[in-house]
Amino acid sequence: MPLVTFINSMNTSNTIDVPVGETLMRAAVNSNIDGILGECGGACCCATCHVYLDSTSAPDVPRVGEMEQQMLDHVAEPRRDDSRLACQLVVDSSMEGLRVTIPQTQL
Ligand code: FES
């Protein structure tokens, strides 16, 4: 299982094993990672799973899809070039070592 590191706004990191095929949002929620809410359950309609992706840690992460692109306009913290919705990132083996930063707030 790929190891993924979540870094919160206090710069505390948690590294978890994520099963291949699991979304980053579901893995975070199941592991009680604070700061990723996933209120819509992964339907790409709440923007409460916003993360900042360190693309250097996993350069082959799929690009932003059309629905995700639209929802990223509704995140609570500033949208950046590295903004992603964790529910739209399905983990595969190429994401080993991925690092994401959780914004201070999702609401
Ligand atoms: S969980 Fe709602 S947009 Fe990701």
TrEMBL record:
<protein>
    <submittedName>
        <fullName>2Fe-2S iron-sulfur cluster binding domain-containing protein</fullName>
    </submittedName>
</protein>
<dbReference type="GO" id="GO:0051537">
    <property type="term" value="F:2 iron, 2 sulfur cluster binding"/>
</dbReference>
<dbReference type="Pfam" id="PF00111">
    <property type="entry name" value="Fer2"/>
</dbReference>
<keyword id="KW-0479">Metal-binding</keyword>
<dbReference type="InterPro" id="IPR012675">
    <property type="entry name" value="Beta-grasp_dom_sf"/>
</dbReference>
<dbReference type="InterPro" id="IPR036010">
    <property type="entry name" value="2Fe-2S_ferredoxin-like_sf"/>
</dbReference>
<keyword id="KW-0408">Iron</keyword>
<dbReference type="GO" id="GO:0009055">
    <property type="term" value="F:electron transfer activity"/>
</dbReference>
<feature type="domain" description="2Fe-2S ferredoxin-type">
    <location>
        <begin position="2"/>
        <end position="106"/>
    </location>
</feature>
<dbReference type="InterPro" id="IPR001055">
    <property type="entry name" value="Adrenodoxin-like"/>
</dbReference>
<comment type="similarity">
    <text>Belongs to the adrenodoxin/putidaredoxin family.</text>
</comment>
<dbReference type="GO" id="GO:0140647">
    <property type="term" value="P:P450-containing electron transport chain"/>
</dbReference>
<dbReference type="GO" id="GO:0046872">
    <property type="term" value="F:metal ion binding"/>
</dbReference>
<keyword id="KW-0001">2Fe-2S</keyword>
<keyword id="KW-0411">Iron-sulfur</keyword>
<dbReference type="InterPro" id="IPR001041">
    <property type="entry name" value="2Fe-2S_ferredoxin-type"/>
</dbReference>
